[in-house]
Write a structure and sequence with these properties.
single chain, 11 helices
C-alpha cells in the first residue's frame, strides 16, 4: 500500500495507527458476543434458558450489562491507594489488547496490495506474547494490594503464583513449535505449516506440546477449572473484590480478550493459522473459525469441570506439566538433529 507523496516512515506509522484502532474497535464488538454466547451455552449445558428477556432471544443482554457497569459508581475504600487502584485495570486491558496485534489472520497480499492481515509481524513474536502475558500479572498484584483489602491481596497472591507457575509450562510448550519452524515469528510459524514449509500442522508432531499449551492457557487466563484467583466461595471475588463499575468491567473484559489471544496463538502455532481449503482470500475465515472452535472449547470446559484445589493447581503445574514440557522439548531437539 502506497500513499502518494507520503514519507515511508509517516506511511508506516499511519498504517500501524489504523491497524491499532481497527483491532481495538473489533475486539470491543467481539467480547460482548462471546459473553452472550457463553451465557447462552452455559444455560443449555445446565438445562436452563440463559438470557432471554432483553432484546430478541436475549441478544441485547451484553449491552444492558455494559450500561449497568457504566452507571455504577467506582468506589474506593479508605484504606486503598487510589491512583494504583485506578491504573491496575488499565494495565490489564492494555496488555491483553496489545497481544492481539501479533495474531496473523492472513498472509501479506491476501486481499491485494502489500498489507498483511495482522497488526505487527515481529521476529520475536512468541517472546512478545510471553512478555505481555507476564506484564498482565502486575495488574492483578497491583489491584489486589492497592485495594487495601486482605481478600483482594490474598487473591492477588494466588494469581501471581498461578501465572508464574504456568508461564514456564506455556513457554516450553511453544519452544518445540519454534524449533520446528526455525523462527519466533507467528507469521513464519504459520507459513512453515503450509505447502511452502513442512506442509503439516504442528498439532500432529507437537501434540504433547499442544495439550500442555491448552492446559496452561486455561490457567493463564484464569478460566475454570483454574479460576482460583477469583474463587468467590473462598475469597469473595479475589483481587477485584473492591472493584465496581467499569473498573471491574475492565478486568472482566481483559479475561475474555485473553481467551481470544490464547485461541489465536493456538490457531497460529498448532492448527495451521490461515491455511485451509479454497483461495487465499478466505484466509481470515479459517482463522476466525478455528479461533471460534477454541472459544467454544473454553466454554465447554467451564460447564464441565469443577474448580481445582490450590494444592492440585500447584502440583499439576510444577510436577506434571513442567516435566512433560521439558521432555517434549528434549525429544523435539533430538529428532530435529537426527533427521
Amino acid at each position: 500500500m502506497v500513499l502518494l507523496g507520503a514519507d515511508p516512515v509517516v506511511e508506516t506509522t499511519l498504517v500501524q495507527i489504523v491497524k491499532a484502532i481497527v483491532i481495538f474497535a473489533v475486539i470491543l464488538q467481539v467480547v460482548p458476543v462471546i459473553l452472550l454466547l457463553e451465557r447462552k451455552l452455559l444455560g443449555r449445558f445446565q438445562q436452563r434458558y440463559g438470557p432471554n428477556r432483553v432484546g430478541p432471544k436475549g441478544a441485547l443482554q451484553p449491552f444492558a450489562d455494559v450500561l449497568k457497569l457504566l452507571s455504577k459508581e467506582s468506589s474506593t475504600p479508605t484504606t486503598a491507594v487510589p491512583w494504583m487502584m485506578a491504573i491496575a485495570p488499565v494495565i490489564s486491558i492494555v496488555t491483553a489488547v496489545a497481544t492481539l496485534a501479533i495474531i496473523p489472520f492472513g498472509p501479506q497480499g491476501a486481499w491485494g496490495g502489500d498489507l498483511g492481515l495482522y497488526g505487527i509481524d515481529v521476529p520475536i513474536g512468541l517472546l512478545y506474547f510471553f512478555a505481555f502475558g507476564s506484564l498482565a500479572f502486575y495488574a492483578f498484584v497491583l489491584g489486589g494490594w492497592a485495594s487495601g483489602s486482605k481478600y483482594s491481596f490474598l487473591g492477588a497472591m494466588r494469581s501471581a503464583a498461578q501465572l508464574i507457575s504456568y508461564e514456564v509450562a506455556i513457554g516450553l510448550s511453544l519452544l518445540g513449535v519454534a524449533m520446528m519452524a526455525g523462527s519466533l515469528s507467528l507469521v513464519d510459524i504459520v507459513e512453515a505449516q503450509g505447502s511452502a514449509g513442512k506442509g503439516i500442522w504442528f498439532v500432529v508432531p507437537q501434540f504433547v506440546g499442544f495439550i500442555i499449551f491448552m492446559v496452561a492457557g486455561f490457567a493463564e487466563s484464569s478460566r475454570p477449572p483454574f479460576d482460583l484467583p477469583e474463587s468467590d466461595a473462598e475469597l469473595v471475588a479475589g483481587y477485584n473484590t473492591e472493584y465496581s463499575g467499569m473498573r471491574f468491567g475492565s478486568f472482566f473484559m481483559a479475561e475474555y480478550i485473553e481467551v481470544i489471544v490464547i485461541s489465536g496463538v493456538a490457531t497460529a502455532c498448532f492448527l495451521g493459522g490461515w491455511h485451509g481449503p479454497g483461495p487465499e482470500a478466505l484466509a481470515p475465515l479459517w482463522v476466525v473459525l478455528k479461533m471460534f472452535a477454541f472459544v467454544l472449547f473454553f466454554i465447554w470446559i467451564r460447564a464441565t469441570l469443577p474448580r481445582l484445589r490450590y494444592d492440585q493447581l500447584m502440583f499439576l503445574g510444577w510436577k506434571v506439566l513442567l516435566p512433560l514440557a521439558t521432555l517434549n522439548v528434549l525429544v523435539t531437539a533430538i529428532l530435529l538433529v537426527v533427521t
